[in-house]
Structures are given as C-alpha cells and as structure tokens.
Amino acid sequence: MTNLRELTGKINIAGALRADEPLKEHTSYRVGGPADLFAEPQTVADAAILLEAAREHALPVFILGAGANILVSDRGIRGLVLSTERLRSVRVEGERIVAEAGCPISLVSEAAAAVGLAGLAFIYSMPGSVGGAVWMNARCYGSSVSDILEWVELLDEEGRVVRLPARPEEFNYKLSPFQKRRALILSACFRLHHGEKPHILAEMEANRADRERKGHFAAPSAGSVFKNNRAFGNPSGKIIDSLGLRGYAIGGAKISDYHANMIINTGSATAGDIEALTRFVSRRVKEELGFELEREVIPVGDW
Ligand SMILES: Cc1cc2nc3c(=O)[nH]c(=O)nc-3n(C[C@H](O)[C@H](O)[C@H](O)COP(=O)(O)OP(=O)(O)OC[C@H]3O[C@@H](n4cnc5c(N)ncnc54)[C@H](O)[C@@H]3O)c2cc1C
C-alpha cells in the first residue's frame, strides 16, 4: 500500500501537490470529500511526471477540470486527482485559437472576441474548462464544441504527447471520443472566422444575460442534471416540471425553482442529498411516464 504523504515528498513538480484536499473547493456544486492526492501541475512535463508516478504506484487517476459537470461523493476520490487549473495559456494563430486544457472556456471566448474572431460566443459564460468542454462536447444555444474543434493534443495512456485531428463523425450530442479513453487532454485548437467585434460581444452578452435570467448563477449547481433526449418529445426540464417537482428538496439539495432540470445546493447539501434527489427524479419520471432519463452530471469518487 502506497503511503501517499511520503509519495508527495518524492514527486518533484513546480505546481501544487497535497494530500487530503477537500474537493468541495473545486466543484461547482460545492460538495465533495477529499482527494487522497491532489495535484495542480504547472507544465505538461509536470503532468507527465504525475501520471507516470500514478502508473508506477498503481494509483487510480481522475482528471479534474473546473468541476462543473461532476458530483463528487462525500467520501471523496481515492488515488490521484490531477487538476488542470494551472495549465491555462491561450494563443491566437490567424483564424484559430489554441488554448490549454485548464483555461476557462469563457476566457477563450473573450480572447477570441478581443481580436475580432467569431465562433466561440455560443459558449461564453458557460462554467468549465477547455478540457471539460472538449471531453463533454459541451453544447449551448444550438452549437457544440465539435462544430469548431480542429485538433486536440493529448497526453496519451502511454505518456506520449499526441495531436489528433477532430473527426466530426466521432462526436455526437454530449459525446466525444475522449470519453472512451484515459488520456489527459492538454490543449485544443478551435477554428474560428473573422467577425465584427460589436456583434460578437453583443452575442456573448445576450447569452450571459439569458443564463443569468434562467438562474444559472444564483446557487451552486452543475447545470442540467439530465441530458435531453429528442425521442421523449420534450426537454428533460419540461418533463420533470410536468410532474410538479420544481422546488422539491431532499436535505440541502433542491430542484431549482427556475429550471426543473437543475438541482441546486441551497447551502447545506451533501453529495448524498444531491445523489438521492437525482435518483428520486429518475425514478418518478420512469414510474409515471416510462422515460429513462440519461444522466449528464457524472457521479465520481467513492460512493
Ligand atoms: C450553471 C451551469 C450551466 C451549465 N450550462 C451548460 C450548457 O449550457 N451546456 C453544457 O454542455 N454544459 C453546461 N454545464 C455543464 C458544464 O459547464 C460543462 O459540462 C463543462 O464542459 C464542464 O467542464 P469542466 O471543466 O467543469 O469539467 P469537469 O466537471 O471538471 O469534468 C467533466 C468530465 O471531463 C473530464 N475532463 C475534464 N478535463 C479533462 C482533461 N483535460 N482531460 C481529460 N478529461 C477531462 C473529467 O474527468 C470529467 O469526466 C453547465 C454547468 C453549470 C454549473
């Protein structure tokens, strides 16, 4: 059995490396127990050292972006949690923008607008990192990340840096090929086009204001709990609403008053409360309407 405190002393990286890090500080739900080992590498080389050490000591690895689409259990995550938080450079190359995995996707959107590049306004103000947005193939306002993704650089399962062109046929609604792998997304290149700066900024502001109106920033959440399935005829929020579940609560977790597909932490929620409420909604929808809702928020850790 590896002594993790001893191991932190042996791994030499420039970024942060701590044992027993409370993950509620790193998730948008503001819940989650400790990571046995928590690292924030500052360079790709440091990330490679950490993943190599994890392989050597047979530690499971979880890659953490901004924690905006996960539910970390109250018992936390065993093994190594590698956060991309400090990998956040962004560069413009003609009509393309290349961003490291930990950069908030909203900042990439802002950087594109600043040089008059259009194509990333749709995702402005969505919480999350570049890596998380690519891994989830995030979708908002009718566009998906895969619509503008040119290539992705990975640290693959053997510790090699590889650049893969994004093939549209490998992506689907909230599905990316990276979900089948255990690779670390290092950076992504987005294909944009020149546009009028005021138009780009106006679209970004309209999207931000729309999210604000819909209560996205009013309380800790992870956005939509369930994916939308066209076969059900209505978005998941409408389906949940039709059962009168808005405002229903378990412990400190509550179905949002303004969006029935969002569970919020009213302040005192545990991950257990959120999980119980998620299962309750699934069960009610299945029992009363026969639909099997698919979870979008990913439960992680030791349940
Ligand atoms: C208020 C609110 C509104 C939201 N609105 C939307 C919306 O409109 N559309 C939408 O699609 N989503 C939405 N979301 C969900 C969330 O913002 C997105 O799914 C986002 O892409 C998650 O990114 P993240 O960095 O937080 O990923 P995390 O939650 O940290 O991770 C999600 C998954 O990606 C993996 N991952 C993250 N980074 C990497 C990496 N570098 N390499 C390999 N794997 C990685 C993780 O291991 C995990 O499995 C919303 C969330 C909130 C809180």
From the structure above, extract its key features.
303 residues, 3 domains, globular, 5-stranded antiparallel β-sheet, Uridine Diphospho-n-acetylenolpyruvylglucosamine Reductase, domain 2, alpha+beta, Uridine Diphospho-n-acetylenolpyruvylglucosamine Reductase, domain 1
Task: Provide a brief overview of the structure.
With 303 residues, the chain is α+β, with helices and mostly antiparallel strands.
Please bin the fraction of helical residues: 25-40%
**What is the count of helical runs?**
7
| Count of folded domains | 3
Whole-angstrom Rg = 20 Å
Give the terminus-to-terminus CA distance: 21 Å
Strand content: 25-35%
Instruction: Indicate the overall shape.
Output: globular
**Biggest sheet details:** 5 strands, antiparallel
| Biggest sheet, spatial arrangement of strands | 6-7-13-11-12
Describe the structure.
By secondary structure, the chain is of the alpha+beta class. The chain folds into three domains: 4-83, Uridine Diphospho-n-acetylenolpyruvylglucosamine Reductase, domain 2, CATH 3.30.43; 90-213, Uridine Diphospho-n-acetylenolpyruvylglucosamine Reductase, domain 3 (2-Layer Sandwich); 230-300, Uridine Diphospho-n-acetylenolpyruvylglucosamine Reductase, domain 1 (Alpha-Beta Complex). It is 26% helix and 25% strand. The protein is built from seven helices and 18 strands. It has a five-stranded antiparallel sheet with strand order 6-7-13-11-12, covered by helices on one side. Strands 1-2-5-3 form a four-stranded mixed sheet. Strands 15-16-17 form a three-stranded antiparallel sheet. A hairpin with a 2-residue loop joins strand 9 (139-140) and strand 10. Helix 3 (105-114) packs antiparallel against helix 5 (197-213). The longest helix is centred in the C-terminal third of the chain and has 19 residues, at 271-289. The radius of gyration is 20 Å and the shape is globular. The model has no long low-confidence stretch (mean pLDDT 96). The structure holds flavin-adenine dinucleotide (FAD). Flavin-adenine dinucleotide binds next to strand 3, helix 4, strand 9 and strand 13. Flavin-adenine dinucleotide binds at residues 28, 62-70, 84, 101, 126-129, 131-133, 135-136, 138-140, 178, 184-185, 216, 221-223, 298.
